[in-house]
Structure of Endonuclease/exonuclease/phosphatase domain-containing protein:
Amino acid sequence: MKRLFLYALIFLAGPRISFAQEIKIISYNIYHGEYPDQASKPNLADIANLFIQLQPEVIALQEVDSMTERSARIYSEPIDLIKKLSWETGYRGYFGKAMEFGGGGYGEGLLVKKGSQYRTIALPTPAGGEPRAAAFVKAELKSLEEFYFGGTHLCHEFTDNRIAQVDSLFAYAETLSKPVILAGDFNFGPNSPEYNRIPSHWKEAGAVAGNTQKTYDSENGARIDFIWYDSRKFDLVEYKVIEVPFSDHFPVWAVLRMKKDQQ
């Protein structure tokens, strides 16, 4: 009887010890909730359906309105875009306000299957311009592994701001007690001084996958939306850019696996 009990314990513990669950991630700049080429046409239903189909564990969203006059123009009344997406997808939602805007707030959004310890950190703007922020959550997988996930949208105007924001964001990530993944619209490309300033143990999923596909659907195109991970803690399994017309950006998708010594 004791031997059977021991075998049962080994069976239950085995997958937890031997295998880490894959973490599916999306980062998406949602263009404040409307189609970019059709003014006042809502895009949240299409975005919600995409998330339901793909079932990522964590989602970082940028250009998020909360109870703004702009959202009222699009949706006939002021709405919190994250609350609406949370309701439509079943994910837990968090809005990280970067600034006051249009009678409400504007900033970052997170959708997670399971999370706690949500917080928003302000990012520096030494050159002025719009306030910027990053939203963080401690996420938990079905297999009980925990990691921190941060979403951000860096300055679109000044290199000095982006450099300061990169320094602040990655320095903060290094203080966290669990493995960290960062995602968002960084507003710089792979050949920029900001990109090259990021510590070498942080890897960008698109670069590791050798995928140079644009993520910003402008006339000339640009690759400015990234998923970063600490390569000491994670391995990349998959990366892709999802070409859907719901925003002026494309969602970026990655699958990571936590290294065994991090479990």
